[in-house]
Amino acid sequence: MTDVVPPAAPPLDLPHYGIGPVGAVLRFIQKYATFSGRASRSEYWWIVAAFGIVSVPLSIINAAAAAASATIDESRAGPPGLLTTAVTVIAVIAALVLITPTVAVTVRRLHDANLSGWVYLLNLVPVLGALMLAAIALRPSNPLGSRFDAAGPGAAARNSGNSAGRTAAPAP
What is the pTM (predicted TM-score) of this model? Predict the structure, then answer.
């Protein structure tokens, strides 16, 4: 009987196609502020799903706590309840901690579709920008996106300053 050995995960500077949710979250943490390279669709969308799984219950708890504190004593206007404040503070801290890796994984996803990371600025267009960015993130990988890899095609030429994208012939 032979043991089936699962394939090794690609290095962190390459996309991991078909990664599972736990692997995607671990990779997200490992590549906290890495804007170079590429991220596969599964890497990106598992992170989006994880954020949804965490943020929806927190939003529901926050809304329920706000509604409960508002109905306890409608006659006095005052600060929000302790639970509402605590959930809001946790949400703000989480958003501040996660903004850098979230932008980074999105930029890497754009790279995998062979687009510049500057396309992320579509988010500045209210509603439509985020929808366009989501549609772009759904695009399949483009082999030309390997130009964003550290060791992708033409990387030696880019690093040596050869703008034609060709490398010099090897020395005899």
Answer: 0.76
